[in-house]
Amino acid sequence: MNIKILKNRSDIGAGTRGSDLGIDAMEIAAIVKGNHYFNEFPSEDISTHNESIYDKDHNSFAKRIGHVAEQCMRVSNAIAKNLKADYFPILLSGDHSSALGTISGIKNAFQDKTLGVFWIDAHADIHTPFTSPSGNIHGMPLAAALGLDNTHLQVNEPIAETKDYWENMKNIGINGPKLRPEHLLYFGVRDTEEAENKTIEKLAIKNYKVEEVRFRGLKNCVAEALEKLSDCDIIYISFDVDSMDKDLVSDGTGTPVSKGFDQDEINQILEQIVASKKVVCLEVVEVNPLLDTGGNKMAEVAFEILNKVTEKIKRNL
């Protein structure tokens, strides 16, 4: 396999504009460092619907869901195409709704393989249009990938159009769920709502909280997590930069949260997962330079992490 960089400059699933500029901010960070990373690998730009933020939208419990669904389909097609062409896709995305497309594309390419997911994030992203307090779809990709509605926790009454689009989203790539709850592992999730907490508890999804990782030892926790996914043939890593501590790194992301991982911890987590040699795709999301009070700090840190883990990926290919 060879590495290919896929660039998905879409931010329509988020509640705050600006993560569509995150890829460019990371490229600028590389240039400033004199690093030729973005010239080293072939790349592909995925078309976006960013102009849809100006459209009138009646889907208040799943904002811009029609265009987000189409964007996830585009991501799914790009991921599946490149995996089938024997590339290792490193996907750089704006908002985290893209992960539904990524997971769906991986399952389309490897329909006979069992997928495991490492979700490194401050947020659980397991809401649905029936439960979401914001209607922002970057908080829903895992629910769609798992085929959930969570109507037993319903607080919203989406219109028929929203429900139809949601059904479509649950069936992107292949029909039905893309993974099982026991094959989803959280690292660093610490900012959740009641509906998400109840869903996580009901599905018994393991969350390796920051304090647990530090108390028990990072290597021990990642090794245990990999053992939990021992019956998975392939692994996808989704790295949201808000998994890092905003007070240690930067506010340069749409929903920054304190008490997260530091840069070195993220490096160690990613490298240990990649060392399993099961990883087939890595995604980095939610860098938002418009919100960065430290200049371009978040993009700089995200690029340093990306550059370091890519070296590990290259050695494993």
Automatic annotation (TrEMBL):
Cited NCBIfam families: rocF_arginase
EC class name: hydrolase
PROSITE patterns given in the database record: ARGINASE_2
Record's catalysed reaction(s): L-arginine + H2O = urea + L-ornithine
PANTHER family assigned to the protein according to its UniProt record, in alphabetical order: ARGINASE
Cofactor section: Mn(2+)
Protein name as annotated: Arginase
This enzyme's EC code(s): 3.5.3.1
GO molecular function: arginase activity
Keyword terms: Arginine metabolism, Hydrolase, Manganese, Metal-binding
Pathway: Nitrogen metabolism; urea cycle; L-ornithine and urea from L-arginine: step 1/1
Pfam families: Arginase
Species of provenance: Lacihabitans lacunae
InterPro entries, per database record: Arginase (IPR014033), Ureohydrolase (IPR006035), Ureohydrolase_dom_sf (IPR023696)
Note on cofactor: Binds 2 manganese ions per subunit.
Family: Belongs to the arginase family.
